[in-house]
Each structure stands twice: as structure tokens, then as C-alpha cells.
Amino acid sequence: MKRRDFIQLIPPITTGLLLPENLQFYSFFNSINRKDFGNDFVWGAACAAYQVEGAWNLDGKGLSIWDTFTHKKGTIYKNQNGDIACDFYNRYAEDIALLKYLGIPNFRFSISWSRILPNGVGTINQRGIDFYHRVIDTCLENNITPWITLYHWDLPQVLEDKGGWTNREIINWFSEFVSICTKSYGDKVKNWMVLNEPMAFTGVGYFLGIHAPGKKGISNFLPAVHHAAMCQAEGARVIRTNIADAQIGTTFSCSHIDPKKAKERHYKAAQNSDALINRLFIEPALGLGYPTDTIPLLKRIEKYMQSGDEQKLKYDFDFIGIQNYTREVVKHWILNPILWSKQIPASKRKVELTEMGWEVYPEGIYYLLKKFAAYKNIPPLYVTENGAAFEDVVDDEYVHDSKRTKFIESYLRQVLNAKKEGVDVRGYFYWSFTDNFEWAEGYRTRFGLVHVDYASQKRIVKDSGFWFKKFLEG
Ligand code: GAL
Prior knowledge:
Blueprint lengths: L2 H5 L15 H7 L12 E5 L2 H4 L12 H6 L17 H14 L4 E5 L2 H4 L9 H16 L3 E7 L5 H4 L9 H16 L5 E6 L1 H9 L11 H25 L4 E7 L2 E4 L4 H16 L2 H4 L23 H4 L6 E5 L3 E6 L8 E3 L19 H11 L7 E5 L7 E3 L2 E3 L1 H19 L4 E7 L18 E4 L4 E4 L1 H11 L1
Parallel strand pairs: 1-2, 1-13, 2-3, 3-4, 4-5, 5-7, 6-8, 7-10, 10-13
Antiparallel strand pairs: 8-9, 11-12, 14-15
Helix pairs in contact: 5-7, 9-11, 10-11, 15-16
The site of beta-D-galactopyranose (GAL) has 12 residues, from loops.
């Protein structure tokens, strides 16, 4: 099973297979225009430390679980790793200049924990702190607003050696890291995201073992889930303590899920998958607890809970980040006694695919926005990731990627549909700004608006990047 097979096992059963009445109308007759989203709508592009920075062992940085994992043979496509990646550590100024050139006014990036705290806790690496000051200052000088993700999957290896996310101590370790980051950058940066896709890093890293740290099984997964959910709220409280006027969010991987057929047992399978993938982290944050009603096995999380945890899981976020790429179709499956569900691979469904093998399904983002908006007391939503990997045709100085442009336009249309129907969605960040290291896929798949030739580190703006520039110019 691949990562996406797992993390996409879920979303909202809002649906059935029919489109809402006006959805098709919007899709076919509305041309997409920046001004339709309103003047305050936030537009941006995103990346993450391990995927772009390189400089894995420079200037005092400690090892992260991704350094260790990628250096093991057989874990990543062609044994590739992020040692150099896009060399963002040295080329950040060039990349931020490109953002400015494309008129992209917001930049989402993450902080490498082991660059700041090589031992996970304790001694601070000043050269690490200085690096992010340079990145932030360069953004601000170019009128680009920085949005920081505190944890995008690169845990310090020394902490993993003590159990990583399965060790409850991580709540203290993470709080210390968040405290240092917010005290260092809080004067300049107001937009913060605590975690990137907790379901993905616990599910793929601590259950399936196909991402770092490569751990498997329910006895790793359940404590990792609880500690991540605790850190999600505790991290937010630390940000608030240090930056009173911060906008605090966290991000979730989500996918719309349809049953294979309109049959009771397939609906049930879809509901179970939805609970695991789409509900597991948002609901405790909203004070609703884990979705044990749908997945009784989650009751086993209680074993890792201490008194008062239920309250501590709750936090009133200022925003929630929705990250969506595709949808899943599932069927009832007796051999999966936890979810009773099995994903039907997109490749077997005669649908349009991206290079990741994921279905292109723009309506999914509409359904998800509606689903999340339906929670009581949900804060404003931002699409903090959406994008696609397609084969890019590099033709001298141009990269032709019409499929990507079409993809962005079609997903944006659906974001707009949701907004027009009253969903409080306030922004859209394309994933990713440049091509980068795509986890288990290495450099095989490219998501960027900007092409990176990894041998020369030359950047070429793709046709989709020029399309986005024009779109943003209105
Ligand atoms: C997300 C993840 C990103 C990127 C993207 C495309 O799940 O946050 O780091 O890898 O998927 O696969």
C-alpha cells in the first residue's frame, strides 16, 4: 500500500455520486478570475524544509528522521535523498525573488527542528536561527508575507531514538521548539501552522512504515496519534503565549471519499475511512473527542491518555488548513477488520490520473470545504495545499505543463463554488512553489510552478507559473 492509498482512504460522505445542482453550471460556464474571490483572499505557494533546503549536515544542523531514513537503501525511489534537494538553504533569495516576480504575495515554508535544536532540545544552534531570519527578512523586503509551519515531518533523530511521536515526552520537546521559534520570529511573523498533516505522518510513518521513521503497527500508531493531537493544541497555546496577535492554524490532509456503489455496506466502508482520515484530528481539536463512535478501535487511545487530556486536546484555532489532492473510492472489504474498507486504486477506475497515480477530481475540494464548514464553531478555512504532479515537457527555456494549469483552474473553480455558497474560505496556497523532494517518490514526481533542474539547480518558470502570475495580476 502506498502513502496516498492510506491517507486518502477517507473524506466526507456528504455526497453520493451526484453533483450539487449548481456545481456543473459553475464548472462549465464560469471563467475563473482573481477578483471573484475578493480583495482579501490570500494567495500563496508552499514548500517544506526537508523537501527543499538541502544542507542536511551544514552549519551545525543535527540529523532528522528523514536524513536517516533516506540514507537507508531501499526506502526511497532510486535511493534518492534530500541532502541537496533544491539547495534552498543557499538559494532562498533567488527563489523568493522568483515568488515576487510571479506576484505571489504569501509564502508557506517550514522550520527544520534539527537545524534549530540539533539535539532536539537544549542547545540552540544560532546559525539555524539566523538562516530563518534571513528567509523571513528576504520575504518581508519583497512584500511577501511568511506563513510558518512548525512541523512538516522532520523530527530530530535523537528524539526518535527516544521513541519519537510514541513517547509522551514529545509534548515537552515540541513545546520547547515552538517556544524558541515563536520567541525568535514572533515580531516578524504572524501566521503560524502547528502541524502539517498529522494523519499523514502518523499513518504513513508510524503505521505503514513507508515514511520516516519507518515504524509499523497499531501500537506505534495510536500513541503517535494521541501525542500529535496533544502537540497540535499545546503548540498552539505556546504560540499564543509568545505572540498575542498571531493567527494560529494547523493543517489536515483530507480527501473526499465515495463508496464504490450505492450499497449500505460500501457506504459504511466509506464512513469508516472518512472517520480515520478526515475526522481523527479535527474533532479532538473542536472538543468532540476521537471518532470512536465510527471506529471502536480508537478507544484503545485511552490507554495513552492522562487525566485532563480530553480538555487539553481542544484549541480554538484561528484557522484550519485544508490540504487536498484527490478523492478515493472505497468498497466494503472483509479482510480489513479495522475499517472494513478497501480503496479501489484510481488506475483501475478509468479516470484522469496525475503522475502520483491520483485521480484528478476537482469537485472533491468543494465537498471537503463544505464538510469542514459544517462543523459547529469551525474557524475560517484556508486551502494550505493543493496541486498536482504531471510530466513536464522541458523545451529549451520553457516548460509546457498545460495539464497542471487546467488542474489548478478546475480546483479553484470548486473553491469558489464553496465560497459562493457561504463557506468561509480565505486563501489558497499552491503546492508547491518549486519542484522538490517528494518523500518516498524522491525526485520522480514534480509538483512545482517552477521547474528545477537538479543537476544545475537552474530554475525555469513553467507555463502554469506564468498562468498563475497572470491570474494574480487580475
Ligand atoms: C502533502 C505534503 C507535502 C507534499 C504533498 C504532495 O501531503 O504535505 O509535503 O508532499 O503532499 O504529495
